[in-house]
Amino acid sequence: MTDEALQEARLLLDSSQGAPNGSRDAEELRDALVDLGAKYDVDRRRLLRKLEQFLLNHAQAAVNSPARDYDAAPLTVELLRAFERRVLQRRSSEGNRQPPTARTSHSGRGDAPRARGPPLSGFGFDPSLDMWLNWAPSELVGEKDETGLLGSPERSPSTHNSAATEARLDGSGARKRVRAELCLPGDDDADETYAARKKKGCTDAVLGDTGTFDDLAAGSAVAVGGVSVVVDSAEAISGRYMFELPGDCVMALRARLQSIASRILARNGLELSACGLRTKSQDDVVVIGRMHVGDAAAASAAPSILLEDEEGDMVALDLSALPEYFVFPGQIVAVRGTNPDGNRIVVRELYDDASDVRPNRPRTTTAAPSGFAPAAGARLRIAVAAGPFTTSLNLRYEPLADFLRLVEEMRPDVIVLLGPFLDERHRRIADVQDVVLASVLEHRVLERLRAARERLPCTTIVLAPSCHDIVHSVCALPQPPLEGALPAGLISTPNPFVLSVTSSDAPPLRVAGVASTALEDLNAASLAKGVSGFERLMRTAEQPLRQQSFYPLYPPSPSTPLRVSAVNHLELRGVELFIIPSKLKPFVVWEHDACIVNPGTLTKGVAGGTFALLERESTSNGERWRGVVRRI
């Protein structure tokens, strides 16, 4: 929309002089608006809010695409028909309309029918054109509606500030950025399922002797002065996703195989045999390579399991002699066995653990042993939540607000939030212009976090992006931090990330996390024998620690874009807390010398999800971990 069209829309909605094109045009516009409200059963306030957003989106789009056909169009009945096609018909086809009796305004009061005679009384329209002209859209004026009744006929024309509106329009007619309340598609859709959710605050998983874990919210506040959170430095990642050279990918995979294989050999005291994968041998040999696992569900016969060395040679593996195993594509292993015919290794032992041995690590427990008395302040409290942070109905982020209110009672040292913060898969994203997306993140997410940080001045809030964050310029693992400046007390990390949390009262803590579908991908692609149920889930969760990679699966799942040439940036070593959110069953466990937590997601469609609360207590005798996964 050009400068003239934007001014025409403002005059129609923000003055008492009538429409710019004369009384007949004003009457036609009035009739068209009334017809739209009656046809789609939309009350006056909601229709005005949607029309306001439609006009704003067109004005913003004109700034970036001044050559578009509709840019020069004045505010006409035809433009209202375009509004009907692009907004109202789409909403009607989604089946999202609420019955008139269920609607409420932003003030919490129902939209009472107006007794001005048919056909307007059925959906709350005033037949007077003055009502339409006396309404000032909050986004155009740039002021918050103090009454909470957008479009209310009681709002006096004297409250409009035309000068303020003009001041917010630059020379090209584009609206300058103002800190006004956003009006987004779906804002009027009530989160009825989320509001009526059951089992609020119920526990889904517990680590340690915590009882009901209610005492975690009690006790002293965070240590005086807070903690120091430092993101481990990493080299800048060069190149672009899907523009990688095959040679670079091969070299990166080969370097990782050599590095992990050498650690497996060193940890298990093995010596590599001086023979190839296909060398015939009646005696035991030790060879290393990367696993290739066939799809067990694709064929009735047993899936093929192959081992590939760094040169690309492959040999079949016979694992039938092993009492149990857990394998997946991309897993780097050392195997001991015989190769009678040169085409198949009969495996007697399989080694996959490349993690570092830490002999000087303090004794760690998940229970309170006799005489265990942590010193005052020698505890670290961490709250963890993963996106989506709003329900699939709207972009109001009420679950995020509820989560922040809950963790304020716990007074954690660190709050870790893993994306997506603005999910590209959200049903409302298609209705929001690209130029508005950054404002959604700023006003709906960062503003809430800033307010929470003001109430918890000693708490550090950590944000890690996701490949599904539509406001991020990189959509593949590994990702750089979120762009742009953040409020004080907020830290943006890469994805995946490793943090060093230190305080004067407790030993340093290394925290790692990844916002991806790594757990689901590993669980779906793995093949196991002798393990099932929750034990299999635990074996899946510890694989990143055993393989020392945030995403050890190769080739990656189609749902996870992976920059293969940058797999060295996915290295995972020496952490005590590993966060791996997923849609699988939430858990918090102590496995493989680390606390592993799947906090779940804060929302599940239209319903509420889960989050995690963790605490490490330290004393000269050792450490004690406690944790809980709760429903929002």
Automatic annotation (TrEMBL):
It is found in: Nucleus. Gene3D superfamilies: 3.60.21.60. Residues 382-563 form the DNA polymerase alpha/delta/epsilon subunit B domain. Keywords: DNA replication, Nucleus. Residues 95-107, 155-164 have a biased composition (Polar residues). GO terms for biological process: DNA replication initiation. This is DNA polymerase alpha subunit B. It comes from the Eukaryota. GO terms for molecular function: DNA binding. Its main location: nucleus. GO terms for cellular component: alpha DNA polymerase:primase complex. Residues 277-352 form the DNA polymerase alpha subunit B OB domain. InterPro entries: DNA_pol_a/d/e_bsu, DNA_pol_alpha_bsu, OB_DPOA2. Residues 89-121, 145-173 are annotated as: Disordered. Belongs to the DNA polymerase alpha subunit B family. The lineage of its organism: Eukaryota, Rhodophyta, Bangiophyceae, Cyanidiales, Cyanidiaceae. The keyword Cytoplasm does not apply. It comes from Cyanidium caldarium.
